[in-house]
Amino acid sequence: MTQMRTGLLVLMIAGVSACGSSLGSGGGKGGAGGPTTGSGGATGGSAAGTAGAGAITGTGGAGATAGISGTGTGGGGGDIACAPGIPTTTQLRRLQNRQYDNVVRDLLGVTTVSVGTDVKAPSEFLFPDSDGPMATDAWRLYKDVGKAIAKAVMANPAQKAKFITCDPAVSGCLTATIKSFGRKAFRRPVTDAEVTRFAGIGEPPSIGTPDDVAEATLVAFLVSPSFLMVPELSKTPAGQGFQLSSHEVAARLSLMLWGSVADDVLNTAADANQLQTKDQILTQAQRMLAMRDKAAPQVTAFHRYWARMDDASSHWWRTDHDVAKYPLYSPAARTTLAAELDSFFAEIAYTNGSYKDLLLSGVGFVNKDNAPIYGLTGAGTTLAKVQLDSMQRPGFLTRAGFLSSYSHYDSTAPILRGAFITRYLLGIDPGPPIPSAALVPPPPGNYTTNRQRTEALTSQQASCAACHTGILNPPGFVLENYDAIGKWQTVDPLGGPIDATAMVNFGDGNIKRITNAQELMQEIARTPRSQLQYAQSLVAYGYGRQPNAQDRCVAEQLAGKLASDGYPILTLLSDLTQADSFRQRVRAP
Prior knowledge:
By secondary structure, the protein is mainly α. The protein has 24 helices and 11 strands. It starts with a helix and ends with a strand. Mean pLDDT is 87; it is low at 1-15 and 17-75.
């Protein structure tokens, strides 16, 4: 009976959640958004649905500071030229799925929910991140997941206490809960009109117990546009656009630096309108970044984006290896190899590390799965911090995660490794591959190294040779001391000695003779092109949109700071909040 009554109450939710008072109008066109497909911007719409239908339209992750996830195109920016100003952005963007998970975790303590017979993270039941109007099925899934979360919360005393701390049967309890929980869920104070609408769920002729009403109220919050979307509707003029309100700035800060909701300190500052100046915003950004437990996952997520680790078109985590030839390899170790890199990125950032440390540090994290690859013994089941030989293991490109991902089943892949460095770290575009090239086998020969075989393969056609010999292959040849799973080798499996010397093209006429991995990483770290690639990725991920002319100016300013040795990554992240485009918006005509 209780379930039936709750179900009837839920039918009333659409009229409450469909029309947030501040979301009744004003879509505007989206800007150069950050879609997970990497296809560019989208057009926003109205966030308000009709009472009873509860439909939500608008954009997905296209707004500023949403954070690009999934299969984004990366933050290189190509040949975009700096054009001072503020890019146009959508006023109505949806929470990304990873943010949705973080928000319900921090608000309600929920990390998994049950829908049907499946138990998963909430976002695993949702549609993938996307731009454009919300599909009917996507809206249905939001409702299904919202009801599942509310049911779980009301059945768990600890989680329930995060939503409601009083007896819903007592007069005034529900109204107080609507105001307190709504402040956190909506990332701003709820309006009197919203309080009235939400409180109406429990008014006659509603059916259900006080707990049923409380559960239905929570569902209403979880499917409200003001929860699912991050509106930026301030109309305070500023320059060529509008100054964001302090509540809107707080949302940008919390989603960019924590990937979740604000804490009490940030909310207090927003309520006091103390997030309007650069200094006020910087103070909060520095405080938030110092909280490693909250900020480190976002720091790691940015570096995964920069390295394209979550990109469906990349080679990360998609290659198996011949266990007979490589007995230290196990497909199950991929989780360890990914966790090792996540720990590496966070450690560099939180030990005052700089950009060059990402490419040169010898810090490592090992357990029984990957320690033998590095020649270590006695490791346990949990990752432990170690210091690897910085000459042999400089930076993340010499870790087993990258090296085994950018290899073949039974051999190294100099072309894959070299192409990654060339395209994504140095920003050099060699042009599209020749479609027929992959069908041409290497000429017969008595090869004693995989390098010889690769050189023979790519020199058969003149149109291939120029690109591979002069651009793509050399960085990969420098990494031939690492076998297909990342283990150090001085003799090739084909029997010949490893030759890691190559003439590497770093772009802009900078071609140097490199003899080992450490020299390669040192040169990448000091190359302005690589510094700009890193800065552009930071801007694209932090602002949640693909590279554009206005953000290019910000990226160039940050890249200039990277040129100074020792400029901390965390300082760079806080600097990202100081651009005019962080606290202002421009609506497209």
